[in-house]
């Protein structure tokens, strides 16, 4: 059978950042439940930036099985773990320090290897292999959930537009081999970029290139300010479990947007 094309992105637009935060918490809990039922643990990768603050809705949630979480980082700087540039550190301050994930299940770089970057990267790769080789036969780690941000130039996880790393064999595929990738985008300063990423994906900016292969799915969670210039049809927030549901949600959202446009044209 020929490989299935990736599912269309599912775009959720929320009236406020608080509603986004609650919905994101609800989504993460469902992704965790699905992963634990199917694979016995929940592998999640976190990005730097505003993402961690948007995870605050998870604090105190009763259905979270923190002892099943295995936390990795989508990208990391080769800096001490208490540096302002550390992805781990920014997530620790705003999120990880507030929840009871066993420290041995939070997978950081080894700061004792900072003077040997190759060794540091090899050691992190070994941690990934240890966790994923047994459960996935795939060549790449297959995360249950990758939480991503959107940088000002359309970059994500330090994958910058035009950078040679994007054409390297192993960079993007980790992002296109996960079960679920979720972009979390908030604030007016993201308006234009979100519009480009979703409405003109053919431009090929890094965020537009995160299209997980089947059965993977990609979601965009945006607040009203970030979503205000985007015309890509938004779906009312609900759990979407598979590719077929993502396609149906997109088709329904597209049909609704077309009906609204026709109505507006006839009102004029
Ligand atoms: O450039 C980047 O920015 C994004 C978004 O950061 P935010 O603070 O505006 O949320 C970040 O997720 C990504 O790791 C980084 O490469």
UniProtKB/TrEMBL annotation:
It catalyses: 6-phospho-D-glucono-1,5-lactone + H2O = 6-phospho-D-gluconate + H(+). InterPro entries: 6-phosphogluconolactonase_DevB, 6PGL, Glc/Gal-6P_isomerase, NagB/RpiA_transferase-like. It is an enzyme of class 3 (hydrolase). Keywords: Hydrolase. Its EC number is 3.1.1.31. GO terms for biological process: carbohydrate metabolic process; pentose-phosphate shunt. Pfam families: Glucosamine_iso. One of its GO terms (molecular function) is 6-phosphogluconolactonase activity. Belongs to the glucosamine/galactosamine-6-phosphate isomerase family. 6-phosphogluconolactonase subfamily. Hydrolysis of 6-phosphogluconolactone to 6-phosphogluconate. This is 6-phosphogluconolactonase.
């Amino acid at each position: 059978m020929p490989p299935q094309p990736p599912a269309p992105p599912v775009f959720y637009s929320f009236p406020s950042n608080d509603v986004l935060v609650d919905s994101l918490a609800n989504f993460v809990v469902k992704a965790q439940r699905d992963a634990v039922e199917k694979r016995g643990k929940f592998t999640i990768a976190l990005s730097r930036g505003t993402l961690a603050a948007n995870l605050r809705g998870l604090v105190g949630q009763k259905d979270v099985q923190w002892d099943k979480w295995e936390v990795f980082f989508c990208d990391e700087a080769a800096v001490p773990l208490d540096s302002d540039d550390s992805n781990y550190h920014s997530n620790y301050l705003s999120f990880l320090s507030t929840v009871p994930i066993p420290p041995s299940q939070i997978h950081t770089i080894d700061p004792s290897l900072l003077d040997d970057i190759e060794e540091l990267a090899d050691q992190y790769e070994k941690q990934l292999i240890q966790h994923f080789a047994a459960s996935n036969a795939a060549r790449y780690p297959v995360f249950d959930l990758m939480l991503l941000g959107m940088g000002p130039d359309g970059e994500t996880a330090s994958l910058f537009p035009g950078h040679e790393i994007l054409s390297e064999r192993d960079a993007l595929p980790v992002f296109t081999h996960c079960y679920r990738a979720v972009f979390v985008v908030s604030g007016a300063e993201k308006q234009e970029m979100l519009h480009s990423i979703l409405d003109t994906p053919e431009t090929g900016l890094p965020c537009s290139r995160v299209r997980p292969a089947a059965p993977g799915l990609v979601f965009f969670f945006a607040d009203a300010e970030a979503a205000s210039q985007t015309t890509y049809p938004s779906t009312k927030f609900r759990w979407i479990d598979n590719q077929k549901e993502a396609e149906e949600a997109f088709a329904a959202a597209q049909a609704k947007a077309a009906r609204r446009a026709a109505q507006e044209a006839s009102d004029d």
